[in-house]
Amino acid sequence: MTIGFRYRLVGRLATTVSIGALALGASSCSEAAEAKGPEVATTQQAQSLADLAEQCGLDIECKAGGIAEGNAKVSGVASVDAFFASVINFQTTAANVSGGIDAELAAIRADFGIAADANLATELQAQIDANLTAGLSIEAEPARCQADVSASLDAKARCEGEVDPGSAMVECSGGCEVEASAEVSCDAEADLNCTMTAPSVACEGSCQGSCDVELTAAASCEGTCKGSCSGGCDAYVKNASGEAECAGKCDGMCMGSCETELAASATCEGTCKGECTVTNPEGGCEGGVRASCEAKAGGMVMCDGRCDGEITPPSASVECEASVKAEAKMNVQCTPPRVAIDYELAVGGSVDVQAQARFEAALENLKVRLPALLASIKRAELAVDAGADLSGSAQTAIMGAADAAGEGNARIAIGLACAVKQIGAVGTVVADSSAALEGSISASAELTAALGL
Predict the structure, then answer these.
(1) Structural domain boundaries of the chain?
(2) Is the dihedral of CA 445, 446, 448, 453 positive or negative?
(3) How many CB atoms lie within 10 A of CB 428?
(4) Residues 144, 308 contacting (CB under 8 angstroms)
(5) Which residues contact 163 (CB under 8 A, 6 or more apart)?
(6) Strand 271-279 to strand 206-219: parallel, antiparallel, or no bridges (unpaired)?
(7) Cβ count near 242 (within 10 Å)
(8) Does the predicted model carry a pTM greater than 0.70?
(9) How many helices (DSSP H) and strands (DSSP E) are in the chain?
(10) For residue 160, which of 48, 86, 102, 286 sits 20 to 30 Å off, Cα-Cα?
């Protein structure tokens, strides 16, 4: 906070709410709020404001605490306190998300036996080289985050002092979640995506899970070959006739069935085990588990539920704009993405069998930890954007409230005088929390780089 801004604010408040009324002998908070009088000197204005605060029973010195103590209600002005609440919410969100990333990274280090002060990428690559024949192949779909439209409307209502936020449609880039039913439809600017799931379905769209293809002629198989293998197979089982057949990776040609894990949505020419997503199906989305209206070619869709993408928050007053935008980016839910990990263990006398067993167990844990980590990284990136919306916006929020107050409101004058003392704390909280988020994102980059993601 600059001294110049504080003096400009004091002058603005004196003009706006007629603090000079005290010079005319106003004896109560209500009289001072309504009286009109000449302007007084800046030092007199400040003293008059302090006297009026005592008469009104309000806390101009912020003795009840402020941002640093987790107290957002420092001004009694809805828009200003909503901004401070967003700053505190950002601090909490950043701590939770950053802590979640750090915990996953620590667990992954522990699984692989990598010390906390060692370079994660270097140590992990050394283990991959020592225990696998052809490196580690990982496919991961992008983490899916959904923003809650109602959270944005609630944030706007709190900031602008509305009793009932109601409901409204807002613009959404990506897809808007809708009810999965036979009657569901989207407007002309969007495609209906319907997702169905079953133990196994013939999928005419994109499959997520595993795809099982029957091979009536010998062919290569990137997944698990169940049948005959013309080359080496890393696992065998006995069939109904008591004969051994392949039930693992085949380095030759496979005949029988080939089941491949799909990390991201892909076309399946056989049977899909998992989720199948069909675009613009006939008959709506009857029997579906999820449906969404997806914007076409970089467009936007109107949404009143959950937005799978970035939302354009409802139009807000200048003093509320920053907090509403920030709340939209903080109130998201990120679903861990599907991840497929493929590898082939090295064999031979040079392999440390015990170390390799621990390494393989760590890879199995990674199938669970990595999706959670990728979801947390995506949420951290959105939270960093929310911090950028809040950074440097405290003065705008306070001055906007002063401009909107009009004449004759002593309580707003007193509240804003307390609020202005919190500007420095806002900058500190946003900067420190953003730094923690960026540090966690940077630390996770060591791992994702080593995994080729």
Answers:
(1) 81-145+315-395+424-450
(2) positive
(3) 12
(4) yes
(5) 157
(6) antiparallel
(7) 6
(8) yes
(9) 11, 15
(10) 48
> How do 137-140 and 306-312 pair as beta strands?
unpaired
Q: Render pLDDT for 133-174 as a digit per residue (tens, 0 to 9).
A: 888 888 888 888 888 888 888 888 888 877 666 667 788 888
Please name which of 299, 330, 288, 297 lies closest in space to residue 313, comparing C-alpha atoms.
330
How many residues in the chain? 453
Work out the number of other CB atoms within 10 angstroms of the CB of residue 266: 15
Long-range contacts of 87-91 (CB under 8 A, 24+ apart): 87/390, 87/394, 87/426, 87/429, 87/430, 88/429, 89/326, 89/327, 89/330, 90/326, 90/330, 90/383, 90/386, 90/387, 90/390, 90/429, 90/430, 90/433, 91/429, 91/433
In 218-352, which residue ranges form alpha helices assigned H by DSSP?
Answer: 321-330
Dihedrals φ, ψ of 252, to 5°?
-120, -135
CB 211 within 8 A of CB 272: yes
Helix (H) or strand (E) holding 382: helix 353-390
- 15: number of Cβ within 10 Å: 14
pLDDT per residue as tens digits for the range 7-23:
455 555 544 444 433 33
